Amino acid sequence: MTAEDEKIYFSAIKENVALDIIDYEPGVVFVHDPQPLALARELKKGEEKWIWRCHIDIDEVALRRNPRLWDFITYWAEAFDAAIFTAAHFVIPQWPLPKFIIPPFIDPLSEKNREMSEDEIQKELEKEDIVIEKPILAQISRFDHWKDPEGVVSIYKKVKEKEEECQLILAGGFATDDPEGERVYKELKETTRDDKDIHILCECSASCINAIQRASSVIIQNSIKEGFGLTVTEAMWKGKPVVARPVGGIALQIRDGYTGFLVNGEKEAVKRILHLLRDPKRRDVMGKRARRYVKEHFLLPVRIVDYLLAADFINRMKGIPEESIISFHPWFKISKRVW
Fold first, then answer.
1. Would you tell me which of 114, 256, 284, 338 could form a disulfide with 262, CB atoms 3.0–4.6 Å apart?
2. Which of 95, 69, 72, 70 is nearest to 83 (CA)?
């Protein structure tokens, strides 16, 4: 991290502070991800409680190798009353504030996750010139080398080499803080233009993503690095088996061989995808298990309670030790929680 990086960050924070983005008097403020981390030190007032929600998997070893970056992030984090992490292996235990472990979740009634009729699915796919005449393999993620879309294309080609007819959909968008996204997208379009069974879709609507996931036979998540991986959650909710690398929070969601498959390379991914394409009954059973698992652990109506409990805990408890780690275990039912 350079002095110029810090200068740019401070400038962006000052701009947001000047906008008076909190024009009321909240009791609790949740701040998501590193970008607005400095806001607590700038905007926190009186008895307000500020909680930082860290969605990313921070590489603690790399952070410690960069003392300037460690000191920079720690300085801003210290202004919070607590932090929330996705999983135990995401926690930075040395940070001087209480920590909660709460997994992310999806809204089952949102446009991206609501139930769709076969007619609705068909109409959405027709808008993108996709015909369900061959099984669909799909990866839904932004166009980013960390998601390894090039590797997905290679996996798809290997599947077809095994004389298994299918088509591939790569659908996503660009992260505002990733200038390389558009280049990745253009390269994919260029390198796949001669294969009419590969569909590269950019900035699809939520209903289109919903339809793609529901129409797919197998969902792939080939990420090299991942936060929690809510696209996996979304696919599982729709009753689809997911074949994915065990990175980030994906291994918290997929029970290997039961709700999907965790794979460690192209060869293994191809093997699992072929197995699912050739065994519709196994695919259906695995998909139903996946949906049930998400229903039990990663839906808004259940997990939002964790946030309310965390806020209540911070408000009621005085002098919580900084080294505290309070875990809302992903598969703990509300009825089993004891305070």
1. 256
2. 95
Please give the structure tokens belonging to residue 17. Answer: 């502070």
> Amino acid identity, residue 110?
S
* Confidence at residue 270, expressed as pLDDT on a 0 to 100 scale: 97
User: What one-character DSSP code corresponds to residue 147?
Assistant: G
Judgement on whether residues 152 and 229 belong to the same structural domain of the protein: yes
Helix axes 280-297, 266-278, angle to 10 degrees: 110
The reported pLDDT for the residue numbered 329 is 62
Is the distance from CB of 185 to CB of 170 less than 8 angstroms? Answer: no
pLDDT of 207: 97
CATH number, domain at 87?
3.40.50.2000
Q: Are 143 and 122 in contact (CB under 8 A)?
A: no
CA 172-175-176 angle, 5° bins: 140
161 within a domain of the structure (yes/no) = yes
Same domain, 132 and 204: yes
Tell me whether residue 213 is exposed, middle or buried, using C-beta atoms within 10 angstroms of its C-beta: 0 to 12, 13 to 18, 19 or more: buried
* pLDDT score recorded for residue 70: 82
Structure tokens at 47: 């008895």
Which residues are registered as beta bridge partners of 201? 171
For residue 177, what pLDDT is reported? 65
Q: Which of 124, 119, 175 is nearest to 147 (CA)?
A: 175
d(C-alpha 54, C-alpha 40), whole Å: 14
Q: What pLDDT is recorded for position 10?
A: 87
The full DSSP string for 77-99 is HTTSSEEEESSGGG--TTSSS-E
Q: Which amino acid is at 238?
A: K
The mean pLDDT values, 10 residues at a time, for the chain of 339 residues are: 84 88 88 90 91 83 79 88 88 85 94 97 95 94 94 97 92 78 92 95 95 98 93 98 94 94 97 96 97 94 89 84 76 43
Report the alpha-carbon distance of residue 137 to residue 213 in Å, rounded: 9
> Is 286 contained in some domain?
yes
pTM above 0.85, yes or no: yes
Domain total in the chain: 2
- Dig out the tokens for 38 from the structure: 């400095």
User: Are 201 and 253 in the same domain?
Assistant: yes
Q: Which domain holds residue 62?
A: 3-105+301-336
